[in-house]
Amino acid sequence: MKRVLVTGGAGYVGSHACLKLAEAGYMPITYDNLSTGHREFVRFGPFEEGDVRDRQRLAEVMNCYRPEAVMHFAAQADVAASMRNPEETLGINLGGTACVADMAAECGADAFILSSTCAVYGNSGSGGALTEETSIAPESPYGESKYMAECVLAAQESKTGMRTARLRYFNAAGADPEGRIGESHYPETHLIPLALKTAQGRRGPLKIFGTDYDTPDGTAIRDYVHVLDLADAHIAALEHLWAGGQSLVANLGTGQGTSVREIIQTCHEVTGERILALASERRRGDPAALYADASRAFDVLNWKPRHELIDMIAHAWAWHNTHEAQILRETRSAAE
Ligand code: UDP
Questions:
Q1: Residues above pLDDT 70, as percent of the chain
Q2: Of 58, 71, 137, 294, which alpha carbon lies 20 to 30 A from 166's?
Q3: Which residue ranges make up each domain of the chain?
Q4: Mean pLDDT throughout 263-283?
Q5: Cβ-proximal residues to 217 (8 Å cutoff; 6+ apart), any chain
């Protein structure tokens, strides 16, 4: 059984990647410091606690499992937090990536998959679908740090020949339909989980950040992609590299733009609940419209997202109605 070290495997996208790795017959080894991840999400392989900046601990874990590949999800992914504390974001996202990539090359892993983001494009794509050639113009230290992490991997490849896939996600959404894992952040900042919590009556009205964008209904447009489709793309990238394919940078999205108001309407249709939403100021650093041209992932990886928006919201709703409150209670009490 081939072994894959998954940093951030206790987090949202990382845990779904572990699920898919296990389903595909690989052994995911989660390496996570549990700063934002959940121990309960590690269900598909062994768990090793550790920080991505801790070279010694990484060496210990890599020498123990000798993974054939690394998927690197562990990151500081909160844009607002990156604005408040850019040094910390750079330390984790850039320093952490450099450290994990060095150790991966040293222990002979021959494929490295990086979780990157469409935030590397900033506002430069507001005119249409974003391709991988769209200018890099991050609006936040988070986006900058992820682009720099991509560059670190390119440098690692020149130095050691380790092949890499740098996957730029659009908006991950949804959950495992079997309800084993899902999305649970503390504090939560993402649109779909917040709308669903409002539907459940667990919080007050939703704020719509900006109603005066130059979009058909005035609210911002994003490309929502099911977290299990993202996980599938990671397996496809891994197998592409293992089969001798070249390194690549690829956008992962559906190509379909959806506005904030359309998300609220779909959440209403799925839940049957009224979702009170109030117009509010734009959020700093939020572009008007971001949606992917993901044709490279379709062409090179033969990857196509399978889930519609309605599935993403239905799966997220099922998760929110079963385990999410429990996971959140545990995270909160650990933090307090
Ligand atoms: N958004 C909103 N109200 C909220 C949270 C988000 O209007 O309470 C908007 C946000 O401004 C963006 C979209 O919803 O246009 C998606 O935001 P999210 O934080 O989910 O993801 P992002 O695109 O920032 O990664």
A1: 96
A2: 58
A3: 3-174+224-253+290-307
A4: 97
A5: 259, 261, 262
Q: How confident is the model at residue 79 (pLDDT cuts 50, 70, 90)?
A: confident
The CA distance from 303 to 132, in Å, is 16
Tell me the helix, strand and coil percentages in the chain, rounded to 5. 45, 15, 40
Helices marked H in the chain — which ranges? 12-23, 55-65, 79-84, 86-90, 96-106, 141-160, 191-200, 227-242, 260-271, 295-301, 309-322, 324-335
Of 306, 319, 296, 234, nearest in space to 13 by CA: 234
Left if phi > 0, otherwise alpha if psi is -120 to 50, otherwise beta: which for 59? Answer: alpha
Q: How far apart are CA 47 and CA 180, in angstroms?
A: 17
Question: How far apart are the C-alpha atoms of 218 and 210, rounded to whole Å?
Answer: 7
Is the separation of the CB atoms in 220 and 286 below 8 Å? Answer: yes
pLDDT tens for 283-331 read 887 888 899 999 999 999 999 999 999 999 999 999 999 877 776 676 6
CATH fold of the domain at 3-174+224-253+290-307: Rossmann fold (3.40.50)
Q: CB-based contacts of 124: which residues, under 8 Å, 6+ apart? A: 134, 135, 136, 137
Q: How many CA atoms lie within 13 A of 166 on its CB side?
A: 23
Arithmetic mean of pLDDT over the chain: 95
The amino acid at 238: L
Catalytic residue ranges: 142
Ligand 1: residues with CB < 6 A are 171, 189-191, 194, 206-209, 220, 222, 260, 283, 286
Residue-wise pLDDT tens digits, 136-155? 999 899 999 999 999 999 99
**Ligand 1 centroid distance, CA of 259 (Å):** 10
Determine the distance separating the centroid of ligand 1 and the alpha carbon of 211, expressed in angstroms: 12
Distance from residue 97's CA to the centre of ligand 1 (Å): 26
